[in-house]
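ok posting inputs for the cobalt (II) ion job
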Amino acid sequence: MEKSFDAMVSSFKEFVKRIKQYEEALAVIYWDLRTGAPKKGVPGRAEVIGMLSTEVFRMSTSTEMEEYLGYFTKEENSKLLDNIMKALVKEYKKDFDRFKKIPEEVYKEYVILTSEAESVWEEAKNNNDFDLFSPYLEKIVSFNLKFIEYWGCKSNKYDTLLDYYEPGMTVEKLDKIFKELREKIVPLVSKIKVSEHQPDDSIFKKDFCIKKQDDFSRYILEKMGYDFEAGRLDESEHPFTIGMTPGDVRITTHYYKNLFSSALFSAVHEGGHALYEQNISADLNGTALCTGTSMGVHESQSRLWENMIGRSYEFWKCYYPELLKVFPEQFEGVSLDEFYRAINKVESSLIRVEADELTYNLHIMIRYEIEKALINQEIKVADLPRIWNERMEEYLGVVPTNDAEGVLQDVHWSGGSFGYFPSYTLGNIYSAQLLNAIKRDIPDLSERLSNGDMLVIKEWLADKVHKHGKLLTPAEILKSVTGEEIEPKHLVQYLEDKYTQIYKL
Ligand code: CO
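and the output
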């Protein structure tokens, strides 16, 4: 006898909950590997990762999944689905199609290639040897071209890749958005370069006790509303956030004894990602909807906290006196104004991950231009170092002296993550739009922030963005909160206002 509709819904929910539980187990193992798992345990753990990932892949592409998706997409059933079920079916169908359309042996070959490529990339970067990495990159690009054919090519080949990270985003839209941003940012950076009012960031290069840095990071995270009973802060080589469920969202930072600003701002950045994951509605727990809606919106949360709040004058008006209590000698004679200007220093530099909030976007645009041209077969892998350096000169006015600090600096391409980079700048654009909406809804925001009240911001974000998880698309969230589509002019305005004041332009 056929199962009833309700029985199908509950068995489907049980089925996807199991997938989610495997993913949670994987996440705990990844966290453990990056935060100090014993070296001798690593090979064994890698096997467990392999087993669990295969199981997730198998379930997501199984005939059982196919039957569920077939059943729920039938017209008579689909009209009975509630919002959560509708979104869930859409989400799992997306994954199913994505993997099922690629022949299994092709996919396996690609997984092996990319895992090899990552270690080759590392070696190439260490030895400043692009030629070592380029054959791998060529193969990864041609695999991606094949995948685009399997998945179905949109009007631009690169759109198919973009859409995976930022649903609805296209080359047509991005070209326009990035051009508008670049035309404002490049001249602003040039004016800053020649300003006589350069902040002095040597104040951060003293001796800062790591234990005290850690205490201060925890203090700020608590003020932001990060729930330590639903998370923890540890140290890792590269800071990251990993969310198992809203009840367990862990973050890391990296402490430098002789550099104050890095660890704190990484903690605030990851804290922004973590607040998103901690505040998703309980209805979505145990499903694929219990995460951020896109990479871009996720990044908007971390950047809003790190740059727009954590690097604001109001924030430090309240917390600088607290910081002075922790590091009285290190900041002796440094005024609030000098401190504020130092944490907002702009400098055209070679390395993306060290870039300030203004020039960061230019680093992203270079990667976007290159990816788009590679995927549309307008340039060859062999041309990358030359194109990279030309663009650096054009956008940032600095040129790497070798490929290690140029085209080889990022890990992303070795893993085949094409289409991911734009998310960072989309995050900056969204965060400026959200900040304006927060200011509209909380007219005394500036005063509250000066008094150290950040919970009001956290609650606003939880209600307008976080709770929806993946139930709404990026465009739907933006529209419902700001009434607008993606719109770069707010970021431009924010950057111009802030840096005109700091550099007295
Ligand atoms: Co981030």
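notes: The longest helix spans residues 5-34. The chain has two domains: 5-152, 171-502.
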